[in-house]
Amino acid sequence: MARASRARSWSDMLTTNGCVLLAREHRKALQGPMDSLTPFPEKAILAESLPEEHGMARDTEPADLNADVQRRWDTNAEWWDEQFGEGNAFQRVLIGPATERLLALKPGEQVLDIACGNGAFSRRMAELGAEVTAFDFSPRFIARARSRTTTNADRIRYLVVDATNEAALLTLGSREFDAAVCSMAFMDMSNIEPLLAALTQLLRPGGRLVFSVLHPCFNNSHGTTLMLEEEDREGTLVETLSVKVRKYISSTTALGVGIAGQPVPQVYFHRPISALYNACFRAGLVLDGIEEPVFGDGDSARHPLGWANFKEIPPVLVSRMRLPAR
Ligand SMILES: C[S@@+](CC[C@H](N)C(=O)[O-])C[C@H]1O[C@@H](n2cnc3c(N)ncnc32)[C@H](O)[C@@H]1O
Asked: Does the domain spanning 2-322 belong to CATH 3.40.50.150?
């Protein structure tokens, strides 16, 4: 493929006439080691301009789409677990710390970990003293999560539950949870409204939901391109990193790669910020905390377009919603 071969050698692309040196279409940097990402992920657009904010592809039955999404995650689960371990750089530097600040957990609190994957953050919350109920719709992820849990096992229960199934969610308890976390998974869900509706029953009054997503503005399913340009400024070559945004406002569904080399592509459901927050507001949750974490001066990526080199542009958005106390 022309695109793939262009990306094979970065040095081939170096020019000194002010033109674009490198451009990488949206890639899901969060899940891989910082330098192991596919420069130009294979991707197919499934649907654009979705009719509703539910994130459903136009010509696909919702149930079929969700089943396909689930099969893809279950196929990738064991491979992902091996790559991700107890948390990659995105988790350790950006998502984990911001989530912990917004959550402000107290020992003994009951917390729901939604779409927990291999349970790395569930284990972290148990270490902080929380009582954790963690679920994912991938049985293989849950099996890996259980086998990784060697300490605080009495404080974590892992379940297989589909977050798009409101009735199944409601079996988790009524007003049971002080807080809920959904790390990097809203953009993987075909429909977030059943989950938000269920949370208004699962959380205690005043309870909080902290969720993180790929930043919809700068790191979205198929509307952003990472850029490295070089300019000759009166004899000095200056390199500039930027993000080109081509599409943002439409909710779109696309195949993409989270970690280079994963067995099968996954399905991403891009929602602009207004769609995300309005879905929360419609459910009765209010926004009361937000972070846009960036890598610091001490972080760098070997890959020229690694997110750790973009110090001014946040690749993830972390938000705290709260169920009003009555
Ligand atoms: C990017 S991973 C994040 C995993 C974990 N929260 C973390 O931060 O490491 C996305 C996870 O969402 C799960 N997921 C996606 N849609 C789901 C759904 N409808 N119900 C439950 N889990 C879902 C996937 O199986 C996968 O484990």
From this structure: yes
